[in-house]
Design goal:
With 339 residues, the protein is an alpha/beta fold. Helix content is 65%, strand content 12%. Helix 1 packs across helix 2. The termini are far apart.
């Protein structure tokens, strides 16, 4: 079939088949491009949607993970806070016990310290220490006094750590003395707990008591050396009383005079002894201070001598060499020599 036509004006022959084919091809390419662009847009949108979904899921997982971790941490923190709160409660309870029950709680420590001190410092051939123990009936420490291996008497010590005086103490100690057949009873307490200024100034004395005839000694427990001296003096008096009974008989006038002395004059004698002891201690302290001053003066003088010797050694080192100088005697100071 002939699809060629001739132009009436110019006589040119036009091939309609080719023209139609070109037009169809152009439209096909345009449609293909349009369809391809639409597919690309759809693919891009689909990919973007998938990415958004994936990102959303990842974000959700991450948030969930952090929430779980934070929840676990919160639980741990809660447990720690609970334990801390319990520890603080226990600490407050202990502090309350120490403040309200200091006489009993701290008394355990005090009793052990005094009992051990007496065991270490009292002569074993004269005194046997028996610690009763906190919370048990009776006194804290019983001192059994011996002469030639035989028990001749006893002394008891109640160790008090309270800051305030208790007027029931003397009667309680007196009852313990009768229970343990003791001749001397002592309350070892802080001076701040002494009932009056006279006793605080002296550091010892007979404890005031509402009941007549009760003779219990009050001594400053912070001065362990003086406490030891008081107890030793009491032990010596028991030994002298036992010796008098052995020689003159328990009902003799000599024994009666010793017992009267212990009742009426012993406290005055102890006060006189304490005065002389205080003066002696003061004198020894003054001597110690003077010795320390002289010691420091001598050390400084020796340091000056050492400086001079150091100059000589430097000169010898320059003239004869370090080996020759090292063989000479050196002055050395101990670390404790400055004290």
């Amino acid at each position: 079939m002939n699809l060629k036509i001739e132009c009436p004006k110019c006589g040119a022959r036009i091939n309609l088949k080719e023209q139609v084919a070109d037009l169809v091809a152009e439209e096909g390419r345009a449609e293909a491009n349009r369809l391809m662009k639409e597919e690309q847009v759809k693919a891009a949108e689909a990919a973007e949607e998938k990415i958004k979904i994936a990102v959303g899921r990842a974000k959700t997982e991450i948030i969930r993970g952090f929430q779980e971790r934070f929840a676990k941490k919160d639980l741990e923190i809660s447990e720690i806070r609970k334990k801390l709160s319990e520890a603080q409660a226990r600490a407050q309870e202990m502090e309350s016990k120490l403040s309200l029950g200091s006489a009993q709680v701290q008394g355990i420590i005090a009793e052990e310290g005094l009992g051990e001190y007496l065991k270490k410092n009292l002569p074993l051939d004269l005194c046997e220490i028996e610690e009763v123990g906190q919370g048990k009936k009776g006194t804290d420490v019983i001192i059994h006094v011996h002469r030639n291996g035989t028990r001749i008497g006893a002394m008891i010590v109640d160790d008090k750590w309270s800051a305030d005086w208790n007027r029931d103490w003397p009667e309680k100690i007196w009852g313990d003395m009768l229970r343990h057949k003791a001749q001397f009873g002592y309350i070892a307490a802080n001076s701040s707990a002494f009932p009056n200024e006279e006793l605080r100034a002296a550091g010892f004395g007979l404890a005031p008591c509402r009941r007549a005839g009760v003779r219990v000694w009050l001594i400053d427990r912070s001065n362990l050396a003086f406490t030891l001296a008081m107890i030793l003096d009491g032990a010596e008096k028991l030994i002298k009383l036992a010796e008098a009974k052995a020689v003159h008989g328990a009902g003799s006038e000599v024994v009666a005079r010793i017992q009267s002395y212990l009742t009426d004059s012993y406290e005055l004698d102890l006060r006189e002894k304490a005065k002389f002891l205080s003066a002696a201690v003061k004198g020894l302290n003054d001597i110690q201070k003077k010795v320390n001053v002289e010691h420091r003066r001598i050390i400084e003088a020796l340091r000056g001598l050492w400086s001079a010797e150091a100059g000589v050694h430097r000169s010898l080192t320059g003239g004869f060499g370090e080996e020759a100088a090292r063989q000479l005697p050196q002055i050395e100071f101990d670390k404790g020599s400055e004290n």
